[in-house]
Amino acid sequence: MAEPHPPRVTAFARGLRGHCPRCGGGGLFRNVTDIVETCPTCGLQFEREDGYWLGSMIVIMALVLVVFFVVTVGGILVTWPDVPWTVLLIVGIVANLFVPIVGYGWAKTTWMGLERGFTPTTPSEEADAAARLAARDRPVDG
Ligand SMILES: [Zn+2]
C-alpha cells in the first residue's frame, strides 16, 4: 500500500531518481522525453490538473542554467588564460538545445517529487488510484 503522504525528502528523492513520489515504483518513462500518465505500481494519476507540468518547466530551466554555468565557468577555469571562447559558445548553445529535450521526462518526475512533497495526495486521488489498480487486475471475462 502506497503512503498517501510520504515525507517531503522521500518524495523529492524518489522524483529525482525518476520514480513515483507516492510509492517509489519505477518504470515511469515512456521514452527519454516523456513519462506514462499513471503509475504502473500504485495507479496514481500524475497530472493533477491542467497546467500541472508547468512546474517541470521550472525544473528544466534550472537544469539548463546549471549545465550552462558548469560548461561556461568550468571551461574558463580549465583553459585559463587561453580560453577558447568560440568552442565554449558552441558547446553552451548545443547543451541549451539538448538538455531541455533529453531531460524533460526527468524534470517531470522531479517536479512531481517536489510538488507531491508539499501537497498531499487527496482522498479522491487515492480512491481513483485504487480503482485504477482494481480495474487493471480484474480478470477478463471469457
Ligand atoms: Zn506509484
Comma- or semicolon-separated keywords:
binds zinc ion; single chain; 4% strand; elongated; 142 residues
Helix-strand layout with pairing:
Layout: H1 8-16, E1 29-31, E2 34-35, H2 54-79, H3 85-102, H4 104-118, H5 123-137
Antiparallel strand pairs: 1-2
Please, could you describe this protein's structure?
With 142 residues, the protein is mainly alpha-helical. The protein has one domain. It has 5 helices and 2 strands. A two-stranded antiparallel ribbon has the order 1-2. α2 (54-79) packs antiparallel against α3 (85-102) and α2 packs across α4. It is elongated. Zinc ion is lined by residues 2, 20, 22-23, 25, 39, 41-42, 44.
Order of helices and strands: HEEHHHH
Main sheet makeup: 2 strands, antiparallel
Structural domain count = 1
Low-confidence parts: none
How much helix is in the residues?
Answer: 55-70%
* Radius of gyration using CA atoms only: 19 Å
Q: How many angstroms separate the termini? A: 30 Å
Provide a concise account of the structure shown.
By secondary structure, the protein is mainly α.
